[in-house]
Amino acid sequence: MLAVSDDLPLLDDLMPWSVAPLRLGRDWVVAPDERTLRSRWDLFVRSEGAERERLFGPTRSRTLSSAVAALPGRVHGTGPLARERGACADPVRVQYGPFDEQWLIPDQRLIDAARPELWRVADEHQLFAVEQGYVPKAAGPALTVSALLPDGRSATGRPGRIRPLYRRPGGLEPNLAPGLLPFLRETYGAEVSPDDVLAWALAAGRPSAAGCVVPLPADAQLWSAGVELGRRTRTLMVRGARGGEKPRLPGGRRPYVRAQLPARPRELRYDAEEEVLHVGEGGRISPVPLAAWEFQADGVRMLDVWFRRRTEPAEPGTLAAAGPAGWPQEWTSDLLELITVLALLGELRSQRAALTDAVTKPLTRDGLRAAGVLPVPDGARHPASVLDHHEEGPGGQFALI
Q1: Residue 145 forms beta bridges with which residues?
Q2: Do 168 and 231 touch, CB atoms closer than 8 A?
């Protein structure tokens, strides 16, 4: 196996513009379903005075009197929350940690650090690579990808880095080191797209204390095989978005609810022999491949994390404690889809390991420097100016960006 060294390129060398994770500041603004968020908002706007402040949860970044701009692409709520009486902004689907899709109220008054530069480039052409926080010897991928706006945190909440594939809306201006694509095209004697670079990073990237290491092969056939593997990985991680098909287990296998899930399940148990996932008392889903049950990110089992986020009780009397009375049907649909995604990703693990073992003579940072790809210009590490975006500033004023 190729050892990690200082001379191997990092993802930071290849995709230089990165953004810190979202910092929500309050947990009640995100939930596994839309109805919960709307009900929490209604409770909030019906409250008054000190009770409203308590429910809101002020921080140094956000209080009830904070005046902030609307998020890019949104026209909602720029006045102080102390006087807010309006309807809830339509929740948006986000990637909440790796492999968990939840809903967020897209109101910058509620979010300590929403990273507007990400919202500005989030569209139907964009993909977000999320570099996971490094944990020595922890099982799980070094890099994930999302078609949804990601929060940029690991399964245990560790901060990572968010790297959009494109610097501008419409799939314009790849977030790649200038000169990288021409260099790779010459090296491999074939066309290389921005998506190919991301696919290779998904297939071959591995964690290190310095960041996600992405060894680039000198061999064109190995590059082609890795890109194909990365494309399959990407399709699974984005769950069929961007023109792909929804993930399906091979051979006609498909996880089903064999016995109704209880309204308030408290634990998950797995029977490897029967391939059955027991959800609370009496609930049964099968077949659930062992690869899905064992799949980890950040060193923790993802099915456990997903389930715990929906069943752990919040502090009584807080907005986060407001939730559905039972187990919604959409949660079951999400769980069945997640089982399929994790099972298929687990099956690719051995192929990813074989790929990294095959990269015995990688291209080096010195080689990239000699080719003029490195060092990356400072401007490539900062967001591009998006001058055709009209945004509403604090108090409804027009914002110039």
Answers
A1: 129
A2: no
Tell which residue, 175, 173, 179, 142, has the closest CA to residue 158.
142
Do residues 284 and 257 touch, judged by C-beta distance below 8 A? yes
Residue 331 to residue 308: CA distance in whole angstroms: 13
CA distance 129 to 14: 12
The pTM for the full model equals 0.94
Q: What is the pLDDT of residues 97-152, one digit of tens each?
A: 999 999 999 999 999 999 999 999 999 999 999 999 888 888 889 999 999 999 99
Residue 283 β-bridge partners? 279
Tokens 């990985």 belong to which residue?
A: 233
Interval 59-85: pLDDT, tens:
999 999 998 999 998 877 789 999 999
Q: Which stretches of 248-375 are assigned E, i.e. beta strand?
A: 256-259, 268-271, 276-279, 283-286, 296-297, 300-301, 362-363
Cα 358 to Cα 352: distance, rounded to the nearest angstrom: 10
- Closest C-alpha to 94, from 151, 154, 135: 151
For β-strands 92-95 and 149-150, DSSP reports them as: parallel
For residue 166, the SS3 value is strand
What residues contact 50, with CB distance under 8 A and at least 6 apart?
none
- Of 22, 122, 32, 63, the residue nearest 320 (C-alpha): 32
- Only one residue has tokens 């109220």, namely 105
Per-domain residue ranges for the chain?
11-216+227-247+358-399, 250-352
Contacts for 184 with CB less than 8 Å, ≥ 6 apart: 192, 196, 197, 216, 223
DSSP string, 43-94: HHHH--HHHHHHHH---SS--TT---PPPTT-----S-GGG--SPPPPPEEE
The token pair at 208 is: 């290190």
- How many CB atoms sit inside 10 A of residue 307's CB? 21
72: left (phi over 0), alpha (psi -120 to 50) or beta: beta
Residue 217 carries which side chain, given as an amino acid letter? P
